[in-house]
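Anyone up for a design puzzle?
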């Protein structure tokens, strides 16, 4: 994974980290460290992988310490998107004990969560290797974390669907209800609203809906083929005949991803990559500098 593909400016990390630190510190700060600290001790700590996986979130972990104290030094030993194994030392932080202990939980929460997304994405990417299919996330992200969660999907080798409602026009069943489920009318209205750079995607859950849309002069740029079996997907791909992108969604798991990818679709989109993935176990081992 090219590092430039994964770059996110601190501008996008800082609000999340700052809010998390304010939530953790409350109005009194880290009273445990305040009670036990004598003088101005310095601590050094290592981030260590407790599981195999893929790495994402080191920039956020760094800010969890440096926003608390600019004297803190954060040294990464691995790169974002790297495959990591249990026991790997991922990074080291050194600085005032108040910053290291105060930022520890925020850093670990974010690093473990984002690495979990990257790890699971990587597993799905590996499952469809050789099919030419892209793995994509959706807008089913946790509030306030969208940019970071979508970044983690890219770190795992996946790609991103639209980031916001204004990125593209996506006609789902609830939108079609505004037109009495009249697909041609809805597509015509969407095409009239879209500029020359805006894409249109139409969700269909039956081959009959797909056939109706394919007859429209204002056809979409992509079809979201929702909850279709691999056999239905193969037929849908044959009907589309390369005139638009074919995206499969719904009920895709690591066990079913390969068979679905073999149907000939272009993209598999999975909402659970961001909204319910399991965190990767990463620890912070501390010693006195």
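Challenge accepted. My sequence:
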């Amino acid at each position: 994974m090219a590092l430039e593909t994964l770059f996110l400016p601190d501008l996008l990390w800082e609000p999340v980290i700052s809010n998390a630190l304010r939530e953790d510190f409350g109005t009194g700060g880290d009273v445990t460290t305040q009670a036990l600290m004598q003088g101005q001790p310095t601590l050094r700590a290592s981030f260590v992988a407790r599981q195999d996986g893929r790495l994402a979130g080191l920039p956020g972990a760094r800010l969890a310490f440096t926003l608390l104290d600019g004297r803190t030094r954060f040294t990464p030993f691995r790169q974002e998107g790297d495959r990591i194994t249990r026991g790997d030392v991922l990074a080291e932080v050194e600085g005032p004990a108040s910053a290291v202990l105060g930022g520890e939980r925020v850093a670990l929460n974010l690093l473990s969560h984002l690495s979990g997304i990257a790890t699971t994405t990587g597993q799905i990417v590996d499952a469809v290797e050789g099919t030419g299919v892209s793995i994509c996330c959706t807008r089913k992200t946790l509030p306030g974390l969208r940019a970071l969660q979508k970044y983690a999907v890219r770190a795992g080798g996946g790609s991103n669907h639209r980031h916001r409602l204004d990125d593209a026009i996506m006609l789902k069943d609830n939108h079609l209800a505004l037109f009495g489920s009249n697909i041609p009318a809805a597509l015509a209205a969407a095409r009239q609203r879209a500029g020359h750079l805006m894409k249109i995607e139409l969700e269909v859950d039956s081959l009959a809906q797909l056939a109706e849309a394919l007859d429209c002069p204002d056809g979409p740029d992509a079809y979201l083929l929702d909850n279709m079996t691999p056999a239905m997907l193969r037929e849908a791909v044959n009907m589309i005949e390369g005139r638009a992108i074919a995206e499969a969604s719904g009920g895709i798991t690591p066990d079913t991803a390969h068979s679905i990818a073999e149907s000939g679709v272009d993209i598999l989109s999975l909402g659970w990559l961001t909204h319910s993935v399991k965190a990767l176990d990463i620890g912070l081992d501390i010693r006195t500098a």
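A detail worth pointing out: The two ends are 34 Å apart (CA to CA).
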